[in-house]
Specification:
Number of strands: 0
Number of helices: 18
CATH superfamily: MFS general substrate transporter like domains
Radius of gyration: 20 Å
Order of helices and strands: HHHHHHHHHHHHHHHHHH
Helix content: over 70%
Shape: globular
Distance between the termini: 40 Å
Strand content: under 5%
CATH topology: Growth Hormone, Chain: A
CATH class: Mainly Alpha
Number of domains: 1
């Protein structure tokens, strides 16, 4: 919900696709910069405590953001100051994510039997994607019908409700590996582990580069306003569409995990993701665009489940926080830096050419990874 409220409000204030890219960059910088030290910290402390700290940071930034997006803030601070302060709150969100992601990754692995991890990953990701369906649609409808104030209040209210979920989490203590080393080596151990593992490195590189170039979602306000000629409610539907596809795919994978020919399915899914992205860029019909975004989300959902399961199955327990932190760097690089790339490309090339170019680059990335990572290509989970 917050993503829709902030993106649409900033676009209303500036009418500049570049500011939508700046939103992604503001979240990526702390998520990437703090990932490795926070992953190291998560490995050394109790996991639920780390999740509580991250949740508190997100809640505080949401409250302040809710005040800044109100129309009155424009008159008081001035547009430039308002945009800058909102971006500052997004930076806090990015830092909180550098704590939350490795802590929750470690939590899931600690409470789930190993043979159930593929299905559990699909279920966990499916619930998250379910929120990504309901949230944007609800935010778009409320923003369009009742205004930014009511939408901002609901964002904070739902965050309060969600925070109570932390109470139900078990206490998961740190697991020592019995070795000692210098601090720098310990902090970067997760990154070095990923680089040495061809399957993990191939999967993460595929996801990072594909989403980096195929980030059409970042500039959806531009498509909604200039090409599809819809309002905040339509933007909410567009933003929810990829998550609808992901939920459908993840519900299927929770019952039928991709055990055989996993690597080939992953490469084919990312190929289809690129083709659907190009189709969306060329569409000028609202519901056709929605359908293509559903396909984008479905193929991305398969990629997410495979990548998360690879990490869970291949990572030693005492390194989960650091490996998850390094994974956060890859994901932040793809999602948020990809948003920045999309904003810049849309500013200078135009929205449609920039997304078509991104889709073509996704196809090139698939070919490159397939050639350079044969172990990923031949991966089977049931082995």
């Amino acid at each position: 919900m917050q993503a829709i409220v902030v993106a649409w409000r900033l676009y209303e204030l500036t009418k500049d696709p570049l500011i939508l890219g700046m939103v992604g960059l503001a979240e990526a910088l702390p998520a990437i910069g703090a990932a490795l030290p926070m992953g190291y910290l998560v490995d050394k402390i109790e996991k639920r405590r780390a999740i509580v700290v991250a949740t508190a940071l997100v809640f505080v930034s949401a409250c302040i953001t809710g005040l800044l997006v109100q129309p009155i803030s424009v008159g008081y601070f001035g547009i430039t100051a308002t945009v800058g302060l909102i971006l500052a709150m997004i930076i806090i969100n990015g830092f909180a994510r550098s704590i939350y992601s490795p802590a929750m990754f470690s939590m899931l692995a600690a409470i789930t039997p190993r043979d159930l991890l593929p299905s559990a990953t699909a279920v966990s990701s499916g619930f998250w994607q379910g929120a990504m369906v309901v949230g944007p649609m609800l935010a778009g409808i409320i923003y369009g019908q009742l205004g930014v104030l009511v939408a901002s209040i609901l964002v904070v209210a739902f965050m309060i409700v969600g925070a109570f979920g932390v109470i139900g989490l078990p206490i998961v203590q740190a697991v020592g590996d019995g070795t000692k080393g210098n601090l720098l080596a310990d902090v970067t151990q997760g990154l070095r582990f990923i680089i040495r593992n061809q399957v993990i490195l191939g999967a993460l590189s595929l996801d990072m580069l594909a989403v980096l170039f195929g980030g059409a979602v970042a500039i959806l306000p531009v498509f909604a306003d200039q090409i599809l000629h819809t309002d905040a409610s339509g933007l909410g539907v567009l933003r929810a569409a990829p998550s609808i596809g992901s939920v459908i795919m993840m519900a299927f994978l929770s019952v039928h995990p991709p055990s055989r020919n996993t690597g080939k399915k992953l490469l084919l899914a990312v190929t289809a993701f690129g083709i659907a992205t190009i189709g969306f860029a060329l569409s000028e019909t609202f519901w056709l665009s929605v359908g293509l975004l559903v396909l984008v989300g479905a193929f991305d959902g398969l990629s997410v489940v495979v990548r998360h399961t690879i990490l869970q199955l291949h990572t030693p327990e005492e390194m989960r926080g650091r490996v998850a932190a390094a994974n956060t760097m890859f994901i932040a690089s793809s999602n948020e830096v990809g948003s920045f790339e999309s904003g810049v490309a849309a500013r200078f090339l135009g929205a449609v050419p920039s997304v078509v170019f991104g889709g073509v680059m996704v196809l090139a990335v698939v070919i490159g990874i397939a050639v350079k990572a044969p172990k990923l290509r031949s991966l089977h989970f049931n082995e």
